[in-house]
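PROTOCOL LOG
Step 1. Enter all chains and additional molecules of the complex.
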Amino acid sequence: MNIDSFHSIILPMKDKLFRLAYSIVREQAEAEDIVQDVMVKLWSKRDEWKYIENLEAYCFRIAKNTSLDRLASMAIRKTGVIDPERENLFFIDHRSPHSEMERKEQRSVIDQCIDTLSENQRLVFTLREIDGMSYREIAEALAISEDLVKISLHRARQKMKEMLSAYHQNE
Amino acid sequence: MNREKIDSLLEKYWNCETSVQEEEELQRFFSYGDVPEELGQYIPLFSYIRNEQSVTLSNNFNEKLQQALETQSKKRYITIRIFTPLLRIAVSVLLLIAVGISFYFISKQDNRPNFVETFEDPNAAMQQAAFALEKLSHALQKSETASRETIQFIDDLDIDWAAIDSLNKTNPVETDSVRMKNKE
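Step 2. Run joint prediction.
Step 3. Record the structure below.
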């Protein structure tokens, strides 16, 4: 029964969990690692599944917490180590304001907008727009109220709309 | 889809009043429909969403997961199924041994006082004590004569103590021999 529910409920969620993790850590390899960790953690707790009301929401919550932990440890790692290949470049003033501006242009407006969203807004945006989940499902997955889901999504969409309009007018 | 419907759907979309189905409809329209120029600014949002929807885990994820699960279940098997019963037995045996040893030592502990009589005969004890005290007094006497000789030697040197004192008038050093000389 355990193996069946693992295959029928948890394994099909892998892409959704991956996108959730990705929306937090913003790194492909790190997000994949998180999904694997989550799956292993879930499998090790398979005896407890029958006591869990909503297994899907439970998976999302584990993924969210694991991702946040990972994000914190990533921040620590990043301040500690400088990539030796890039180290040389730090001494050359290669980042002129002009090239910086060009680089920003190249990134999509949406990416920039997503960077400005709060964590909740970003998670809700990912779960709703990309995974197409209902408000109730999102609320359960993130352990927040449905109202907060709606408010976060509303703010995220309004921000998107504003940024897109502003970008359009500047062009 | 006509323009009016799209406008009302978009309005509902920005206000978060659309259902998942309606959002899919919008997505389809912006992806494949004939988007009017005024709405062109919103295309990046929907293409971004479509793009993100196609982002998935790499193909070998299932294999990697399988491996991770196998190593994990192996670890569980060793630690829980084999070691724990053995560990329980080992711990209980160790506990029994420890209790046994401590009982043995507690029962063997002697309750006699630390200070005990070592002499049977009081005369022998007296003799030993007298001998020890004699040795001590002999040593004391020896050191006393030695110090007396030293003082005598210093006095015989006939040092002009007053001259030495005058060198250090503010804080003269008083010694026994100086006092003795003054009295003379």
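Step 4. Note key features.
Chain A touches chain B at residues 14-15, 18-19, 22, 32, 35-36, 39-40, 43-44, 108-111, 126, 128-130, 132-134, 150, 153-154, 157-158, 160-161, 164-165, 167-168 (CB under 8 Å).
The CA atoms of residues 90 and 150 of chain A lie 44 Å apart.
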